[in-house]
Each structure stands twice: as structure tokens, then as C-alpha cells.
Design goal:
By secondary structure, the protein is α+β, with helices and mostly antiparallel strands. The chain contains nine helices and eight strands.
Length: 354
């Protein structure tokens, strides 16, 4: 009897081992929360009349809703260059899908309103993939009509697009997540674009003594910024291109653009001959931490309303001083903030120039 019981238990164990184990379904790579109320900025290739006349169109869009199946809806603003609409916004609403497992993306405009047109226009169909905080692909199933949209904060998307209309955004920044910190190399590129747009001239590329910029996407802009005296290294041979730019470095470079634009004979060597009016500006609570070389720029841009302090405007936050500040990214700026500041300088260019 005992032997039979052991035998039955053995058979039962074998049967149990043969029953397939049902694993829990894998979770999706993304959730609706990834996309709800997300804002995007970028460009796509369109046509003016025919495929023989391609043109870059600027677009910002906001995905206002995304359900559990990945169905999305939202609105988009696109620049158009047809007669009577040159560089004006055209507003679309759109619907589409995002595959929450793979990131596959489709979007099609389904309505348009325009203050200058009684005719509704169709927006191109966009097909692509979401990955690494950007959406890339093609429009209208045409491989020549590529697009790239990067994430941007809601407050910044209109200002960013206007900046691009003025030619203020470096091409190396397209499709990037503009909410992330801006590096010294990237801001050198932003500064050069500002100078070239203000002057209508293409800055020459010069050789630099920097040994750490080889292979950097903005190496050409670094050469231009160095030649214009807008950017200098952290030492005679190091530029630190991938370091996050500090707020005092950023302010100083912006003011150098203003000086170079305003005075043809300005250079860093003659900088002390050019005065920035900072009269009447209240001293920041952290003034002692602002480097002496940065104070005129910090207070001048504050006076002009281009820069604003933090903590209700009481502190400039020139650079990280404590280990905690360094760890938190204190006193740095994002890409979108850098572009917005450049746009504000551009808007005041006629006031800034003597």
C-alpha cells in the first residue's frame, strides 16, 4: 500500500510539471501618462506647389489626450508660406495613435482654422517612431519628407518656434529634448546663430587651441565663437564642451554677442573700454558669488529684462557652490531657456545697439 502511494505521487508530480506556467503579461514600454499634455517642437519637409520645391515647415504640437490603447488627440501649429500666409501660424487639430509597446506613431490633422482663410486645409500624415524623447519619421509615406520632433516644455514651445522662424536655433539642436541642460558647446552654437542672425553675416570658422572638442557636433560653432571672441576656454587648451554652462557664463557670452554686434572693433582684449549700463538694478542676494568678470553682464541683462533671478528674483544663481548645488544642477540652464534668452536679445537688438 505504501509503495502504491509513492507511485501515485510520482505520477502526479510528473503531470504537474507538464502543465504550462502562465507568466504575467509583460508591461508596455510606455503608458498614456508619457504622452498626455506633452509638447513637441520640430520641423518637417513640405512642398510649395510641387515636389520640385521642397520647403522646411516649423511645427509645434501638444498631445492633449492618450488612452490605454494609444489613441491620441491634440492640436498643432504649423507655419505656412502660401500667398497671404507667409510665416503665419496655421492651427490644426489632429488624431493618431502611439503603440505603447513599440513607440510606433501616426498622426493626421483632421481640422484647420485660420483667420486668413475660409478653406480648410489638410495636414500631412505623419508616420514614425517615438524613442529617446523624440519622434522621427516621414510625412505622407514619402521618404523625402522627413520629420523630427523633440520634447519641449509647454511654456516654451511658441517662443522656441518663433526663435526658429528668425533662424536662431542651431541645426544640431533639432530633434533633441529641449528640456535638458544646455552644454557649453551647444550654447556656443546658440550664440553664433544669434550673432549671424543679427548681422546677416556668416561667421568664419577659425582653428582653436582646444584639444577636447574633436568629434563634438558643435565643433564648427565653437571655432566661430572663439574667432568672434564670444567664447573662451576654461583653460588655454580645454573648452569643456560637454560641461553644463553656468548662468554667469551664459550671461557673459550673450553680452559678448551684443558687444560684437554693436561695436565692430570690440574684442575681449578691449572689453574694459565698453561700458554696460547697470545703474538702478537692485543687487542680488548672492552677489558675492557672482564672478567679477560676470557681474556687468548679469546686471545688464537683468536691467534689460532678458534675465530674471530665481527665488522671486532675489538671487542670480551664477554657479553651483556647494556639493548639494552641484549634484542638483543648480545655476544651469536648459536648451529651451538658452534659446528663449537668445530670442529676447534678438527682440531687443535695436534697443541694445547704440
Amino acid at each position: 500500500m505504501k509503495k502504491r502511494l509513492v507511485s501515485l505521487l510520482t505520477v502526479l508530480a510528473l503531470v504537474i510539471c507538464m502543465i504550462p506556467v502562465l507568466s504575467a503579461p509583460a508591461s508596455a514600454a510606455y503608458t498614456p501618462a508619457t504622452f498626455v499634455n506633452s509638447s513637441w517642437y520640430g520641423k518637417y519637409i513640405g512642398w510649395t506647389g510641387s515636389e520640385s520645391t521642397p520647403i522646411e515647415r516649423y511645427m509645434n504640437m501638444t498631445i492633449t489626450s492618450c488612452d490605454a490603447k494609444g489613441n491620441i488627440a491634440g492640436n498643432a501649429y504649423v507655419t505656412t508660406e502660401v500667398a497671404g500666409h507667409t510665416n503665419e501660424w496655421v492651427k490644426y487639430t489632429f488624431k493618431g495613435t502611439i503603440n505603447l509597446d513599440t513607440g510606433a506613431f501616426t498622426m493626421q490633422g483632421n481640422k484647420i482654422t485660420s483667420q486668413n482663410s475660409s478653406t480648410n486645409w489638410s495636414l500631412a500624415k505623419f508616420t514614425g517612431t517615438y524613442a529617446n524623447s523624440k519622434i522621427t519619421g516621414i510625412a505622407d509615406d514619402n521618404t523625402k519628407r522627413t520629420f523630427s520632433f523633440g520634447l519641449v516644455s509647454g511654456w516654451a514651445k511658441d517662443e522656441i518656434t518663433q526663435a526658429d522662424l528668425e533662424g536662431l536655433i542651431p541645426t544640431t539642436m533639432y530633434g533633441k529634448d529641449l528640456r535638458l541642460p544646455v552644454t557649453r558647446a551647444e550654447f556656443a552654437a546658440v550664440s553664433v546663430k544669434l550673432y549671424e542672425t543679427l548681422t546677416g553675416e556668416t561667421a568664419p570658422v577659425v582653428s582653436t587651441p582646444f584639444t577636447d572638442i574633436k568629434g563634438n557636433a558643435d565643433i564648427e560653432s565653437i571655432g566661430k565663437a572663439y574667432g568672434l571672441n564670444i567664447a573662451v576656454g576654461i583653460s588655454d587648451t580645454k573648452f569643456a564642451p560637454n560641461n553644463r554652462i553656468t548662468r554667469e557664463e551664459l550671461a557673459t557670452m550673450l553680452c559678448r554677442v551684443v558687444k560684437k554686434y554693436s561695436f565692430a572693433d570690440w574684442s575681449i582684449a578691449t572689453d574694459d573700454q565698453y561700458y554696460l549700463d547697470t545703474s538702478g538694478v537692485k543687487t542680488y542676494a548672492d552677489d558675492a558669488y557672482i564672478s567679477a568678470w560676470a557681474k556687468p553682464s548679469a546686471y545688464y541683462l537683468t536691467k534689460m529684462g532678458i534675465f530674471q533671478g530665481i527665488e522671486d528674483g532675489t538671487r542670480f544663481a551664477p554657479k553651483a557652490v556647494t556639493p548639494a548645488q552641484q549634484a542638483s544642477g543648480y545655476a544651469t540652464a536648459t536648451r529651451e531657456q538658452a534659446i528663449a534668452l537668445s530670442k529676447r536679445v534678438y527682440d531687443l537688438s535695436e534697443v541694445l545697439k547704440p
